[in-house]
Design a protein that fits this description.
The chain is of the alpha/beta class. Helices cover 47% and strands 15% of the residues. It has 30 helices and 22 strands. The protein is elongated, with a radius of gyration of 38 Å.
């Protein structure tokens, strides 16, 4: 059993051991029974607390090929392997974990292969034993991960082949290595505790010094998957903390590469290593920690990687899966707002992408101006106000008070996935530089809203994040994707939601612990607005040109109107989607309405249009407040609109005539009726003016002041105080999302089953074709056999013998 004295071992096997007594005998026995005898076995016990040390000593006494190193304190498997490799003398080195096994011919087969191919390492196959009832999907994922690349690779080093080209994985124990390279690599590994991902660290350094690789099909290693932390589906905070030590590996690799001449070539690879380490730690947080440990676990995750790194990788990986992410972060106190000290002058930041050409943009500018003008009892400003947009100031912006600071972010449309990093940095810089306490975001349905919320609330000062919903709360449910459900979870994470109607408030209060219904401000006094002169048959459509405002319907309406009122004229004021505008132009020409419809474009001087119109036409599919309706009513102009029953203006009803959505024919009928009845126009117009006067007298500043003050009061969220309606609204919204997910999963499964059947059918047809070809080939061989053995064939061969002999002579020459 013992190799000859003084003979250098062919293979050194390094076995780090820590509390492996339950499995250690099987591991050591598998080494002892190797068909190759010229081996040394170096067991490094890392201060085990069980009887692992006794087992090692027992094998050491029985077999002189076994050597032992005993750590007096726990230093991690990384230090164990480092010490074991330093003590090794073999021409080649292999690794075995204390809970795994080698097949009897592993050393001989691995040795023969690396000798045959002359490479710096040989990668062999492994058997995965499911020791913890893992899912088949997880087992197969690991089978794929450890599979060798059965070809030879020659390169300056093997880092790119592993991490960039992904031809094979960094698993340390399923390979045999050139001993000298391995010893050099481990001498460059930093001393210290690396409880997790030490395989990755060691293999990265080995790969850097290695030039050649070969993969073989032979199965030489038995991997008992699930015996350690790697396979545990339920982990506690102690195990999770151990897992998070993976984060140290990135720093160690950066330090290893920093003085190398080709260091810059590997920055992208190091980044991908870092991201991979984070993803593993995050997935274990998401999938393997119980609910009661989630918050403390997230604190540990942030502590290990840093919040900016966490958000950067999450936004990259889960940008298009925000709903599931939002669901995970509900109830995580890490994102809780930190109350400000009493008496602190609060800094309120309003964010919207721009302040030009749109009702929401106009409201943003007005709110900032109103907040900046608010003062306390001593006449001191209540708030510092910062307006944040995605763009620099541009032409035709709505007016901003000089008391309002302007700041900018990278545009939300391009800050997607891995590009969100720059926007995150900009947000944090803005919060630091302006001491922002509250962010009010009007971009409530933008894909960036969820990530902006986490970004703001994850800042070290923990500002509040308020969602300002400026449209009907049900609108997101018509979008492609899960925006509606995403918002239901975001309402529970954010610090407050402000909506524009009682209807919306009823819905969002089912989710948000702090919500309010606050009307939009009016930048005008209705009493000072001149009543329209009601120029005969003059109509107005005003707003942003977009799909939801449906301006095309107003042109189709005019086709009906001009039949009864030939000189009726519609002025369409606004700009926006150029494709829609082009479609509108073509429609005007096709319907011969050139004299009846005029596309005015964008203008800030809208008063001239209100003050002459007989009616405002509204064809929107949805609105949240619609300042244009208020402006029209302030001029005494009747509103004829598609029905939007949630709107406060429409629920009051004064000054407004409604028709069902998409019924431009009924819209035309009401327009014709009004145009032919001037007295009715005046009556409806004056009723509308009265409604808007009452709205103008509403003290929205007090509502906002109370809302901001409420942020600093303790509020809990739960079932107490929720009505039956609240409960129904909440669970109808969330359960239908779960139903959609199940349906999608069922459809996916059905599609996969159909593909499987198609594949099987195709395989069956191919097998039948192959069988037919084989039969045809057999028949052909029979014909050839009988032909070759026939009398005529033999006579023919004799006749052609001499010419064939002459031909072969010339060919040989």
């Amino acid at each position: 059993m013992e190799s000859r004295v003084g003979t250098k071992p062919k293979v050194s096997i390094i076995i780090p051991v820590y509390n492996d007594s339950e499995y250690l005998c099987a591991a050591l026995e598998s080494v002892k029974r190797q068909t190759m005898k010229e081996i040394e076995v170096i067991c490094v016990d890392d201060a085990s607390e069980d009887n692992s040390r006794d087992i090692i000593k027992e094998y050491q006494e029985q077999d002189p090929r076994f050597k032992a190193i005993f750590h007096e304190t726990n230093l991690s498997a990384s230090e164990g392997r480092k010490n074991g490799v330093a003590a090794s003398t073999g021409k080649y080195i292999m690794f075995l974990d204390g809970d795994d096994e080698l097949y009897p011919d592993a050393c001989q087969a691995a040795y023969d292969a690396i000798e045959k191919y002359g490479t710096d390492m040989v990668h062999f196959n492994s058997t995965i034993v499911n020791c913890a009832n893992m899912t088949e999907a997880r087992i197969q994922m690991n089978v794929k991960h450890i599979k060798p690349y059965v070809r030879k690779i020659e390169a300056d080093n093997l880092i790119s082949a592993c991490w960039k080209e992904k031809k094979f994985a960094f698993t340390l124990w399923n390979k045999i290595y050139n001993g000298d390279i391995c010893r050099l690599a481990f001498s460059r590994i930093e001393p210290g505790a690396y409880p997790k991902a030490q395989d990755l660290y060691a293999f990265f350094v080995i790969a850097y010094y290695s030039r050649t690789y070969m993969g073989i099909d032979e199965t030489l290693y038995k991997y008992n998957f699930g015996l350690g932390i790697t396979g545990d589906d339920n982990i506690d905070l102690r195990k999770y903390s151990t897992l998070l030590t993976e984060s140290r590996i990135y720093g160690a690799l950066v330090r290893f590469m920093e003085n190398k001449p080709d260091n810059e070539e590997y920055e992208e690879i190091l980044e991908s290593v870092h991201e991979g380490l984070f993803n593993e730690c995050f997935v274990r947080w998401r999938d393997n920690l119980s609910k009661d440990l989630k918050n403390e676990g997230f604190e540990l995750l942030v502590g290990a990687f840093g919040f900016k790194t966490v958000l950067r990788y999450l936004s990259k990986k889960f940008w298009y899966n925000r709903t599931e992410m939002a669901k995970e972060f509900v109830g995580i106190p890490y994102f809780n707002y930190i109350k400000r000290e009493p008496g602190k002058q609060m800094t309120i930041a309003m964010y919207y992408r721009c302040i030009v050409n749109g009702g929401a943009q106009r409201v943003v500018s007005m709110l900032c101006n109103r907040w900046a003008d608010m003062v306390d009892e001593e006449g001191k400003p209540l708030y510092n106000v910062v307006l944040i947009t995605d763009e620099g100031s541009c032409e035709n912006e709505y007016e901003i008070s000089p008391l309002v600071k302007r700041r900018y972010l990278p545009r939300y449309e391009v800050s997607i996935s891995e590009k969100y990093k720059e926007r995150m940095e900009a947000w944090h810089n803005l919060i630091d530089e302006n001491d922002i306490d509250v962010v009010v975001s009007g971009m409530w349905v933008a894909p960036s809203n969820f990530w902006d919320m986490l970004c703001v609330k994850g800042h070290k000062s923990k500002p509040a994040f308020v969602i300002h919903s400026h449209s009907f709360c049900m609108v997101p449910y018509q979008f492609l994707g899960d925006t509606g459900q995403e918002l239901c979870y975001s309402y529970q994470i954010c610090d407050g939601v402000v909506v524009l109607s009682e209807c919306d408030h009823k819905f969002v209060s089912s989710f948000a612990k702090h919500s309010a219904w606050i009307c939009n401000p009016l930048e005008f006094s209705p009493l000072k607005m001149p009543t329209s002169s009601y120029e005969p048959n003059r109509l107005l459509w005003l707003g942003r040109i977009s799909e939801e405002k449906n301006p095309v319907d107003s042109i189709i309406m005019m086709k009906y109107v001009v039949k009864k009122v030939p000189d009726a004229k519609l002025y369409i004021v606004g700009d926006g989607n150029q494709q829609i505008i082009e479609r509108m132009k073509q429609l005007i020409t096709r319907l011969h309405l050139g004299n009846n419809v005029e596309l005015v474009g964008f203008t800030l001087d809208v008063q001239d249009y209100y003050s002459k119109s007989m009616a405002l036409i509204c064809t929107s599919k949805y609105e949240g407040w619609s300042l244009t309706l208020g402006e029209a009513m302030a001029h005494g102009v009747p509103v004829i609109t598609y029905d939007m029953p949630w709107l406060t203006f429409l629920q009051d009803g004064r000054g407004i005539v409604t028709v069902p959505q998409e019924r431009y024919d009924l819209l035309a009928r009401e327009v014709i009726s009004l145009l032919k009845n001037p007295n009715r126009i005046v009556k409806i117009g004056m009723e509308g003016k009265q409604q808007i006067i009452e709205v103008a007298n509403y003290d929205i500043e007090s509502d906002w002041k109370e809302f901001f003050a409420e942020l600093n009061k303790e509020k809990t969220y739960g079932h107490s105080g929720q009505t039956q309606t609240d409960i129904l609204l909440k669970y109808l919204s969330l359960y239908q999302y779960e139903g959609r997910k199940k349906r999608a999963a069922a459809e996916k499964k059905k599609g996969a089953e159909q593909e499987r059947r198609k594949f099987n059918a195709s395989q069956r047809i191919n097998n039948e074709k192959i069988k037919k070809l084989e039969n045809d080939n057999d028949s052909l061989n029979d014909v050839i056999y009988h032909l070759e053995h026939s009398v005529s064939f033999r006579v023919g061969r004799m006749i052609t013998w001499f010419p064939r002999m002459i031909r072969d002579m010339f060919v040989r020459r």
